[in-house]
Amino acid sequence: MIYFDNAASTKPSKEVLDAYLKCALNDYENPNSLHKNGIRNLTNINRIRQNILKLLDFSFEYEVIFTSGATESNNLAILGYARKNMNRGKRIITTNVEHESVLDVFKHLEKEGFIVTYLNPSSEGKIDIEEFKKAFTKDTILVSMMTCNNEAGFKLNVEEISKIVHENPKCVFHSDCAQTLGKYPINYNLFDLVTISGHKINGLKGIGALIKKKKINLEPLVYGGGQENGLRSGTLDYPSICAFNVAIENVMKNFKVNYSKVTEMHDYLVEELSEIDEVILHTFKEYTPYIINFSLKTKKGSVIVEALSNHDIFVSSVSACNSKREPFSYVLSSLGRPIDEAKNSIRISLGKDNTIEECKLFIDTLKEIFNQVRGR
Ligand code: PMP
After folding, report:
1. How close is the Cα of 74 to the center of ligand 1, in Å?
2. Which atom of ligand 1 is nearest to the CA of 208?
3. Predicted pLDDT at 324
4. Residues with CB under 6 A from ligand 1
5. Does 2-8+255-370 carry CATH code 3.40.1180.10?
6. Of 11, 76, 101, 351, which is the most exposed, with the fewest CB atoms less than 10 Å away?
7. Of residues 148, 171, 177, 321, which has the active-site annotation?
8. Which atom of ligand 1 is the closest one to the Cα of 7?
9. Considering the domain 14-253 in this protein, what is its CATH number?
10. Distance between CA atoms of 52 and 209, rounded to whole angstroms?
11. Block mean pLDDT (10 aa), the chain, length 376
12. Whether pTM exceeds 0.90
């Protein structure tokens, strides 16, 4: 099998599973119980929070709220901030290339009376600063912009936007970094709220975090026992938190080695793909090497994905979360690519365990399939 769908999910590492099992078997007591073992578990969870902040170079101003993953973190950041701070203003800004767990929240907030501006990035994946400044009024309370895009891998100009956002003390900046953590070097202190997820970094599904500035107040989405400073009630999943900690430690420890290995595979694939007549490559000046996206000139994207799958090669035609709907990349379309390219795109998403041999086999198989499959 060649697994090139690591942006959808990754294989958990053995260390991650060992950490989960050890904790689940030995430290199963509720971290909110007042007995010795409960207190020990909560103390360890608090240590893990500090460790994560340190590993990601956050300043002392931040804190970690554990969630079930990036979807929940995005919901909590955006809904939670907008609802809590609506008395300060009703304008919020995002981009048209966000993950659905951001876009759908903004759509929902429109129904609650918020005025949303959706910005289209340029063909290079950058937000036009003048356009942004026009949309950014004194009533803007929240801007949400991902750092690396999950479908095409381009990096947005979050540094420039962060500067402007912070000229208005009323406004905060959220970034969905689900595809950035461990895959692109970024200064997380650019943001006030940061979304991360375990299963994108060889961790487990069902665990993630919203990292936020302590002084920011949010409206909870889930009420109950008051865990996570009242922001996310429910018994803390200590084993998953241990596993998440190990996944973050590993991804940060091996960042440089993995990045250069993946860059080598990325560059090889881009070079080979650019020589295939059927392929329209979507490349960008700033990107994460973990994601490559291309469209097909004459063939159907879904047919090629299926043919590759029959050879045990797994790629995506659109992001996995979006794949139940008719294949159409709203991301490529928002970048100004033609409809046919948006309908027939393929995403390769690499992981640390892929090899150059797999890349070679992928290219050979793809060429073979192109020769066999008729045009659309
Ligand atoms: N945001 C981005 C950019 C993603 O790629 C994904 C996963 N496809 C999510 C959010 C959702 O993540 P999770 O599965 O952890 O909820």
Report:
1. 9
2. 15
3. 60
4. 7, 69-71, 99, 101, 146, 150, 176, 178-179, 197, 208, 319, 321
5. no
6. 11
7. 321
8. 5
9. 3.40.640.10
10. 10
11. 98 98 98 98 98 98 98 98 97 98 98 98 98 97 98 98 96 98 98 98 98 98 96 98 98 98 98 98 98 97 96 85 72 96 96 98 98 90
12. yes
Nearest in space to 66 (alpha carbons), one of 195, 157, 174: 195
Tokens of 356: 């150059």
Nearest CA to ligand 1 atom 5: 150
- Which residue ranges make up each domain of the chain? 2-8+255-370, 14-253
Phi-psi region of 224 (alpha: psi -120 to 50; beta: other; left: phi over 0): left
Matching fold, domains 2-8+255-370 and 14-253: no
CA of 66 to the centre of ligand 1 (A): 15
Q: What is the CA(71)–ligand 1 centre distance, in A?
A: 6
Determine the distance separating the centroid of ligand 1 and the alpha carbon of 99, expressed in angstroms: 7
Token pair of 117 as six digits: 């501006």
The token pair that represents 49 in the structure block: 């929070």
Closest among 289, 302, 369, 284 to 342, alpha carbons compared: 302
